[in-house]
Amino acid sequence: MKPTLVRAASTRVIAMLLASPTICVAATLTINVSGIAESLGEIGCALFKNADGFPMDNAKATQIWLRADSKGVVCTFQDVTEGSYAVGVSQDFNGNKKVDTNFVGIPTEPWGTSNNVRPTLRAPRFDEASFKVSGDTKIDIKVAK
Q1: Which domain holds residue 100?
Q2: Which pLDDT score is estimated for 121?
Q3: Which CATH number belongs to the domain containing residue 29 in this structure?
């Protein structure tokens, strides 16, 4: 093949790849969880792509559960596509993999969200806790009762 034909073919392939809307960059999202008062139960990190279920309905999220450690826990999500997300973190003492609440809906187990949002008398909203992933991303979340 002549060099000019190879160059022309290469240029067309590159142009097609750049114009393709299906190219996604997958990133690693690392969540450093602190504030764990005791090494009891598990720490759950729930990654939400939108407001549906945030922050309490982990079934609507991608979840990671790790053994609680008072020194801290690191949740790592692989192959996260670029976009806006929010994370809910909870410490599950009794193994039911959800945040337990009292009769008025206030959590009885330690919890936290991305951006460390802790409103008074209501749950955090997705828009308050959301952050952008565009390449490998690290965030810190502190859990508390």
Answers
A1: 24-142
A2: 87
A3: 2.60.40
